[in-house]
């Protein structure tokens, strides 16, 4: 597979990216919200095959202290091919030099990220706009 990797947002079809997140499946991420979050992220990557968006990811980083890798998505037909690993490796490499690299993972995917050196944080906490939904999905725990 020959992939075209891009790091800038020029020419990105935000509706196509939104469809990628739904297909992955990583939930409903409206195009305008994706434009905002990718635009505000220091590191991003978009992976195309024959002009079609097949993978994406980003890292919200401050340039020195913290880089937060998130929103890694790969089309189902490309999952299991190593593309997700390549996207994570790319964002980890771009984040090198930060004091900490943090990653937010789908519950159950933690073993995948351990391969990159990520360990579970014991003190991480979050407030979501829909706490009950995230409790039900396994992202949060009340203990």
Automatic annotation (TrEMBL):
The keyword Flavoprotein does not apply. Keywords: Acyltransferase, Transferase. GO terms for cellular component: cytoplasm. It comes from the Bacteria. Residues 1-143 form the N-acetyltransferase domain. GO terms for molecular function: N-acetyltransferase activity. InterPro entries: Acyl_CoA_acyltransferase, GNAT_dom, NSI-like. This is GCN5-like N-acetyltransferaser. It comes from Hydrogenophaga intermedia.
